[in-house]
Specification:
Elements: H1 45-55, E1 67-72, E2 75-80, H2 94-113, E3 116-122, E4 131-140, H3 145-153, H4 171-183, E5 187-190, H5 193-211, H6 214-222, E6 242-243, E7 264-265, E8 272-278, H7 283-302, E9 306-309, H8 317-323, E10 331-339, H9 352-355, E11 356-357
Parallel strand pairs: 1-11, 6-7
Antiparallel strand pairs: 1-2, 2-4, 3-4, 5-8, 8-10, 9-10
Helix pairs in contact: 1-2, 2-3, 2-7, 3-7, 4-7
This protein binds flavin mononucleotide.
Length: 359
């Protein structure tokens, strides 16, 4: 049987795959893999750099790209870049670490595409607190069509803030997304009609409260202005149109540059909303949430599903508590709107030279 797991290894710090096997049957588990075999040849640094290129296509809060990478000893260190933390909406760095986790998932996938099992060590390393993960190419492994499809989806995944079609997302696809989250040690739940109404209400409240704060608007301006010529931040072509009925409280990235010519369109009245959660709320859970988020988004992309995170209520502690159920061991990490939409445009990325640090 060919092993198709990209999830390594791993780690004494990370629980074994809670699902045991992927219910889709397409991605069996390889949970008991030993550490990287020193007898296996190292991947050339140029191939590892290509893997980092895949990593930086990941989504990040406000496209802040808060990551750095170090190629050393045949593996890739992944570090948080705290200078890029959003102090107003993300003082704890939770969304920063989720963003880095999404990049780690792409990195693992890219190493798997090089024909090697990615062996991941979750840190912390007290000597270097910003070092969040290290991924090393392990033993050779056979290709997997399911993982090939996920890897092929990396350049096609974009946050889509356009109106979505009034088409139901099939339950089988939602179950596949939930299985993708479970594979990464997280949970994804579909909001029923009552929960959807409640969550949208919280998003609306949060969006209004945030907008009312000058420091929020100033921080948003930092990541949206100047509107052209930068390699990070959210550019105007990614803002999406106005919601003509103001029913769907997407984050308004146009606050700092109101434009009278911005189009207004009708958004879907009953969006499909899912909540990604973890069973704890430490930096390790956040990293895992990011890996799960990216796995979910890539599976969604394979199914031609568009997605928009709606994080505003998770950025206000009192509102996040209302989406979180600590008694049930669930901490909300990301709220996602899912659906079918016309394609959107990619956002820029900083060049490799800016994110690679000397080994
Ligand atoms: C942790 C996290 C939270 C995010 N929250 C929001 C959000 O509240 N609203 C939104 O429109 N986009 C949100 N995004 C999407 C980012 O803005 C997007 O990933 C970034 O601009 C890069 O664009 P791309 O996803 O198209 O590559 C979030 C992304 C991450 C990783």
């Amino acid at each position: 049987m060919s092993k198709t797991e990209i999830r390594d290894e791993q780690t004494r710090t990370r629980p074994a795959d809670p699902a045991g096997t992927d219910p889709t049957g397409s991605d069996p588990t390889d949970a008991d893999l030993p550490d990287a075999d020193p007898a296996v040849a190292e991947l050339p640094a140029v191939d590892l750099a290509a893997c980092v290129e895949a990593a930086i296509a990941a989504p990040s809060i406000h496209n802040s790209q808060p990551w750095r990478f170090r190629i050393r000893d045949g593996g890739v260190d992944v570090l948080a870049d705290q200078r890029r933390r959003l102090d107003v909406i993300d003082p704890s760095g939770r969304e920063l670490v989720i963003s880095v986790g999404a990049a780690v998932f792409n990195l693992r996938l890219a190493i798997r595409q090089q024909g090697r099992v990615p062996v991941q060590r979750l840190l912390p390393d007290p000597a270097e607190p910003d070092l969040l993960a290290r991924v090393v190419p392990g033993r050779p492994t056979a290709p997997s069509p399911a993982l090939d499809a996920l890897a092929a989806a990396i350049p096609h995944r974009h946050t889509n803030r356009r109106p979505f079609a009034r088409t139901v997302v099939p339950a089988t696809v939602v179950e596949e997304l939930a299985a993708a989250a479970r594979r990464e040690g997280a949970a994804l739940r579909l909001a029923g009609p009552v929960a959807r109404g409640a969550i949208l209400g919280l998003v609306r409240t949060a969006e209004q409260r945030l907008r009312a704060q000058g420091i929020y608007r100033a921080e948003l301006a930092q990541w949206t202005l100047p509107a052209h010529g930068r390699r990070d931040g959210v550019p105007p072509q990614a803002f999406g149109p106005w919601d003509a009925l103001e029913a769907l409280p997407l984050r308004d990235f146009g606050l700092a540059q109101p434009r009278l010519d911005r189009r207004s369109e009708r958004f879907e009245p009953y969006p499909t909303i899912v909540v990604l959660s973890t069973d704890g709320d430490t930096a390790q859970h956040w990293l895992r949430a990011g890996e799960a988020l990216q796995r979910v988004l890539l599976v969604a992309t394979v199914h031609d599903l568009a997605a928009t995170p709606m994080s505003q209520p998770l950025e206000i502690p009192a509102l996040r508590e209302l989406v979180t159920d600590t008694a049930a061991g669930r901490w909300a990490q990301v709220i996602l709107r899912l659906g079918y939409a016309s394609p959107t445009t990619p956002t820029p990325r900083r060049p490799l030279a800016e994110v690679l640090i000397a080994g």
